[in-house]
Amino acid sequence: MDLILEGFKKAFWLLISFDPEVLGITLLSVKVSGSATLISLVIGITVGASVALTRFPGRRIVVSMINTGMALPPVVVGLFVTISLWRNGPLGVLGILYTPLAMIVAQAIIATPIVTGITLAAVQQLPGKLRLQILALGATRLQMLWILIREAKLSLLAAVMAGFGGVISEVGASIMVGGNIKGYSRVLTTATVMETSRGNFDVAIALSIILLLLAYLINLVLTQVQQRERPR
Amino acid sequence: MSHQPVFEARDLHVIRGGSLILKIPSLVVSEGEILVLIGPNGAGKSTLLQTLSALLKPTRGYISFRGRRIGSDIPLLAYRRRLAMVLQEPLLFDTTVYNNVASGLKIRGVKKDEIEPVVAKTLARFGISHLRDRSARTLSGGEARRTSIARAFATNPEVLLLDEPFSALDPVMRETLLEDLERVLKETRITTIFVTHDRMEALRLASRLGVMNSGEILQTGSPELVMNHPVNEFVASLVGVENILAGKVIRGNKGTSLVSVSGKEIEAPGDLSLEEEVSLCIRPENVLISNMGSGDTSGTANRFSASVERITPMGPYQKVHLNCGFPLATFVTGCSLSALCIAEGSTVLASFDTMAVHVIRKGQPVDAR
Fold this sequence. Notes:
The complex is a heterodimer of chains A (about 230) and B (about 375).
Chain A: H1 2-16, H2 20-53, H3 59-69, H4 74-85, H5 100-125, H6 130-136, H7 141-151, H8 153-168, H9 172-178, H10 188-198, H11 201-229
Helix pairs in contact in A: 1-11, 2-5, 2-8, 3-5, 4-5, 4-9, 5-8, 5-9, 6-7, 8-11, 10-11
Chain B: E1 5-16, E2 19-30, E3 34-38, H1 45-52, E4 60-65, E5 68-69, H2 76-80, E6 83-86, H3 97-107, H4 112-125, H5 141-154, E7 159-163, H6 171-188, E8 191-196, H7 199-205, E9 208-213, E10 216-221, H8 223-228, H9 233-238, E11 243-253, E12 256-261, E13 264-269, E14 277-282, E15 288-291, E16 302-314, E17 317-323, E18 327-333, H10 334-339, E19 347-352, E20 357-361
Helix pairs in contact in B: 3-4, 3-5, 4-5
């Protein structure tokens, strides 16, 4: 019990003192997961909406693959990104293994199927004749896609929340491709794992609280937007 | 009204899932015309509208717009931007009424300051200026329809295509909207193709009426022509001819013919061939009933003693089903029915003029125009 209490005390202190190391870790977490979410939004919304709006042979297989991808285990992603970026790997020449960039790549791979799957479902849920109406208003195909995405914005906010939530909380891929290097590629989750393994529960608790707060604050903002837009 | 063709469709075929769902050998729509297409569900009305608006590619045939073939002489996008289409559901965007009405103009890249006066004028024209800043999600069914029609008008289209825009509205709302649309169409003189399965709606708006079934246009013409001279029994029943009687010509007499229907003789206009099998169409509003021995119907060739089989209330009037040896239906107001003391089982005199009989000749070629 004392251990937990001490942990909370320490956490509180670290939080109010704006500990530079903790602050750096937090900022990097936001930077890496935020960038990965942005990339996943660009790819996921484009692919999800395109698959939702087109009919082609093997479409069901593609949809099943996207849905399976939503449950992609981060360690599996971490493994394949590590192999790909390894010195002798196919993308080894890039020399980005154990860098925040590699973490962004891995996290984007985790978040993209989530965003794609939710976008696909959201666009499919729109009234079938809406596409006809948009085209009848004189829209180009690209304008139609943009309007449909705007119409599905409530569900797409859920995609942002799910995508960001998925990557800010993952540890497997980040530790494998980032290496948890102090002051360089250490993020909240990898730091928590390390401090726990060292027995520094107070620091681990502090980092966990920050992680939870961060996830909560970002989701709070998105939820506010979503609920304001909710149909009454 | 000028008669320059706006649309000209030739040999139009649409095949879907291996079935021919639209087959239009020829359709011409002139400038300023309001062509109303009626037909049952699945008649191909919406498919025709979608094909005309280039939202659906015909399997065969072509459409010309002001003499230029769409797709080859006019790019599809440029063509679509000269039309406006309103579908059955309002399909409004999740934004304000203003933004909805402005959407077509925004899509065309019209500048913001030019959009404002156009939208304001359109909102006023459809009586929805007060809804300007309301979210489309909070509108009632009627308000949403108004907004969707206003959205179509805002782009100042050369042709307006309306696909049952008033379906699923209550009668009061439908009537108000119909009045407004009628007024705006008169003001703007815009070429319009209006699809409906409501006969009354069709008659209110049409300058030309078309009847469709199974992907084909069976007849087009002035509303009066189609209503009174249907080309076949299907068109007749669709335009409200309640009495369609099969008979055989037994005698001719200087511009009229006598047709035997269930053993009774009906005088019909025209010199018909003896023994020819025909269908006689008599609109119920052209059938008069009176008490036996009263009223002067002596000048009317077709007079029959009839028993009243059934009386069905039809809102402002009553539908009286008669048995004259053949079935005959007529419409009578409730007041007239009371004044004549007519009830089910009564015997009355049913009469109709020779010229009120329209003859459909079996096996004769039909001019659908």
